TrEMBL record, chain A:
PROSITE patterns: SOMATOTROPIN_1, SOMATOTROPIN_2
Pfam families per record: Hormone_1
UniProt GO cellular component terms: extracellular space
Xref: SUPFAM superfamilies: 4-helical cytokines
Keyword rRNA processing: no
Protein's organism: Poecilia mexicana
MF-aspect GO terms: hormone activity
GO-annotated biological processes: positive regulation of receptor signaling pathway via JAK-STAT; response to nutrient levels
InterPro entries recorded: 4_helix_cytokine-like_core, Somatotropin/Prolactin, Somatotropin_CS
Cellular location(s): Secreted
Keyword Secreted: yes
Family: Belongs to the somatotropin/prolactin family.
Keywords, comma-separated and alphabetical: Disulfide bond, Hormone, Secreted
Protein name per its UniProtKB record: Prolactin 2
UniProtKB/TrEMBL annotation, chain B:
Lineage: Eukaryota, Metazoa, Chordata, Craniata, Vertebrata
Pfam family, one: EpoR_lig-bind
Protein name (database record): Prolactin receptor
PANTHER family, sorted: CYTOKINE RECEPTOR, INTERLEUKIN 5 RECEPTOR SUBUNIT ALPHA
Fibronectin type-III domain location: 12-108, 109-207
Family matches, as PROSITE patterns: FN3
Subcellular location: Membrane
Transmembrane segments: 213-234
Record's bilayer topology term: Single-pass type I membrane protein
InterPro entries for the chain: FN3_dom, FN3_sf, Growth/epo_recpt_lig-bind, Ig-like_fold
UniProt source species: Poecilia mexicana
Matches recorded under Gene3D superfamilies: Immunoglobulins (2.60.40.10)
Keyword field: Disulfide bond, Glycoprotein, Membrane, Metal-binding, Receptor, Repeat, Signal, Transmembrane, Transmembrane helix, Zinc
Length: 212, 504
């Protein structure tokens, strides 16, 4: 069950006196929640990918597979620790949000397809539904974190296009339909790992004293 | 032509594997193909984002390897590796594709694993601590380390497992005196598990406190009955004294009064001691002596001694359990060694119909059985039984074990001498040969000692009984000798089987 409903974080934002310590604590808590959320999402995507491989591709070769083109390849993402640490906070945050936005619709359609396939058992079907819901919830959570960060002055308020994800979606609308289900799972597993990593790096850059 | 010769000589490198220890660098190895023994050079080229580059480091990861440092490592990126083998005969290449370095992430096992036994109350537990592998960066949040811990009893086969993110764990399911094994391993993100760390052993010390309590408990519980016993002994000390230290009968001399001694009048003392000076006539004394049986070790004496044969000793032998209603006539028994030796073998075959007729255990039923039958001892023609009517009657022979004045000896053994045949008993009176068995002699009765429970002799086949009537009375074998009389039930009555004497 998704216990980390971000609406319940209202209590954390009841620091009225403007004490910075209190606010940063609540920001750290927010980060923890979204990180937990992303970890769970990545876990589910990993499970689904393994199950899919088990059911549909019993004989797989680790090395020498056909190259995959994920629809998110166009999004430039830092591919290493140093890169992720060097990149600007705002940019990193933007990457996270872009990824989350890009996956909302494909996962929803994936779930619709899987529900109709009988090979995929009910358990996996529930997972795909959960996955598609989570990506949506996580995006909302990260947006809350961004608002908090902007409020605290941690990042610039100049990230205007984050508030309008539809602009991001438009460019990606067609590409994801070209992916088959297996590639989709593979790509999402990779991207959810990225999201989790970036969130953690971001937290440790902004609020390092709260457990890194 | 030379081209396909080449194909046979140089085999493409087949195996290819990579590993990343910390999700920041990675290495790849290839298996050198069969190269015909010629020095072969291997080169690796990789393409990433349409740019072909050569391996930056052929050395750090060992032979036939390529090491990619942080600068050259891109996680979540795709690599296409081409390994080219070149030697004097030509070159060959093979392509390998890595879609994501994340798939090859396998860390080193955790380090500094320590297991400490914490013996605090209420129960001991294992404090297990460890550290992340040295290369892995845990501070920037770049990796998420998960640990798996397993503990098992040294001689058990089942591991108890725990997965978590912390670097410590308290294991409570331990018992004193047992040895435990602990291992830890770790995983980066969704990569592969590392190898297990070295096994750490820990032994839980035995719980001496519990043992202390146990012994205190035992002591107290054994003390209470002890004290009670002492108290009872104290209360009944007189009775105990009587039991443990029976009063030694003081010297009682007829006519002598202890007080007399105390008073100290010498005349009275002397008189008392000496009694009246009238001694009984000697003849009376010898008469008494006459009634005593003679003891001897040799049968020769028994057979040849005129004195013995003259004496016509009367021997009262009453089988144990014999109902008093039966008349026991005096029987003269003779010793016939020869017959006995013959029947030695037959004895072995005898079954035991009388296994339950041991005289010691003769139950009342037997008694009653006898009663019901109202049979007397079959007086055999040639036998003469001693008339015991003059003796006081007893109600239960099986119980009589002691002698009062003129009572009859009770023999507790049942042993039937082989082939004892009352009919052919000679008229001679035979003196019991084994006087060592004679416990006490009193007037006309000989008391033989109780022997072991009937064995062998009493357990005879039924057919043996029929032999009895035809055979001469036989002395039981030496091995049997310790027994007394056997009671044998033939058909409906007891037959006096005769005495068991030792033949020495």
């Amino acid at each position: 069950a998704l216990c980390s409903r971000l609406s319940s974080i209202r209590a954390a934002s009841s620091c009225t006196n403007g004490q910075t310590g209190c606010h940063f604590l609540s920001l750290a808590n927010l980060f923890d929640r979204v990180i937990q959320h992303s970890a769970r999402m990545h876990g589910i995507s990993n499970d689904l990918h393994s199950e899919f491989e088990l059911y549909f591709l019993p004989s797989k070769n680790q090395i020498g597979r056909v190259s995959r083109n994920c629809h998110t390849s166009t999004i430039l993402t830092p591919n290493g620790k140093e890169n992720a640490q060097r990149i600007a906070r705002e940019e990193l945050t933007e990457v996270i949000l872009k990824l989350l936005v890009a996956w909302r619709e494909p996962l929803w359609h994936f779930h619709q397809n899987m529900a109709q396939h009988r090979e995929f058992n009910n358990f996996s079907s529930n997972k795909s539904l959960e996955m598609s819901e989570m990506v949506h919830e996580l995006r909302r959570g990260v947006q809350k974190v961004v608002e908090k960060m902007q409020m605290l002055g941690v990042i610039n308020s100049s990230l205007g296009n984050l508030g309008s994800p539809e602009a991001l979606l438009a460019s990606d609308r067609a590409e994801w339909r070209l992916m088959n289900d297996y590639d989709l799972l593979y790509c999402f597993r990779r991207d959810s790992n990225k999201i989790q990593n970036y969130l953690k790096i971001l937290k440790c850059r902004i609020v390092p004293e709260h457990g890194c | 032509g030379p081209e396909w010769e080449l194909a046979f000589i140089i085999c493409f490198p087949r195996k290819f594997d990579c590993r990343s220890r910390e999700k920041e660098t990675f290495s790849c190895w290839w298996e050198p193909g069969s190269d015909g023994g010629l020095p072969t050079e291997y080169r690796l080229f990789y393409t990433q984002e349409r740019e072909v580059r050569e391996c930056p480091d052929y050395v750090s990861a060992g032979a036939n390897s390529c090491f990619f440092d942080k600068k050259h490592t891109s996680i979540w990126a795709e690599y296409t590796m081409t390994v080219v083998a070149t030697n004097a005969l030509g070159n060959a290449s093979e392509e390998f594709r890595i879609t994501d370095v994340m798939e090859y992430v396998k860390p080193d096992p955790p380090v500094n694993v320590t297991v400490v036994v914490n013996s605090s109350a209420p129960s001991p537990f294992l404090e297990i601590r460890w550290k992340s592998p040295p290369d892995v960066d845990v501070r920037t949040g770049w990796v998420t380390l998960k640990y798996e811990l397993r503990v098992k009893q040294n001689d058990s086969k089942e591991w108890k497992v725990n997965i978590g993110s912390e670097t410590f764990f308290n294991f409570y399911n331990v018992y004193p005196g047992l040895l435990y094994m602990v291992q830890v391993r770790c995983k980066l993100d969704h990569g592969k598990w590392s190898e297990w760390s070295n096994t750490i052993f820990a032994e839980i010390p035995k719980n001496h406190q519990l043992e202390k309590y146990f012994w205190i408990f035992v002591f107290v519980f054994s003390l209470v009955p002890f004290l009670m016993a002492m108290y009872i002994v104290l209360l009944k000390r007189n009775a105990v004294k009587q039991c443990l230290l029976p009063p030694v009968p003081g010297p009682k001399i007829k006519g002598l009064n202890a007080h007399l001694l105390k008073s100290g009048r010498s005349e009275d003392v002397v008189n008392a001691l000496m009694g009246n000076q009238n001694f009984p006539p000697v003849a009376a004394w010898t008469e008494q002596v006459e009634d005593f049986l003679l003891v001897s070790d040799s049968d020769e004496w028994l057979l040849t001694d005129s004195f013995a044969s003259e004496k016509n000793k009367d021997i009262f032998i009453i089988p144990a359990g014999l109902h008093l209603g039966l008349e026991i006539q005096r029987r003269d028994l003779s010793v016939d060694l020869n017959t006995w030796e013959k029947t030695d073998d037959s004895k072995e075959e005898a079954k035991s119909n009388f296994s339950n007729m041991e005289p010691i255990n003769l139950p009342v039923e037997k008694h009653e059985f006898l009663n019901g039958e109202e049979k007397s001892i079959q007086p055999l023609a040639s036998t003469s039984y001693v008339d015991i009517q003059q003796h006081p009657t007893l109600t239960d022979y099986s119980r009589v074990k002691e002698v009062n004045d003129n009572t009859i000896l009770i023999l507790n053994e049942e042993e039937i001498p082989h082939g004892l045949d009352a009919e052919e008993v000679k008229s001679e009176v035979s003196v019991p040969d084994d006087y060592s068995r004679v416990k006490e002699v009193n007037s006309d009765v000989v008391f033989l000692e109780k022997g072991d429970s009937a064995d062998g002799c009493c357990k005879k086949k039924e057919d043996h009984y029929t032999d009895w009537t035809n055979q001469k009375p036989i002395m039981p074998l030496e091995s049997e000798l310790s027994k007394g009389f056997c009671l044998k039930m033939i058909a409906s009555g007891y037959v006096d089987s005769g005495p068991a004497f030792s033949v020495k």
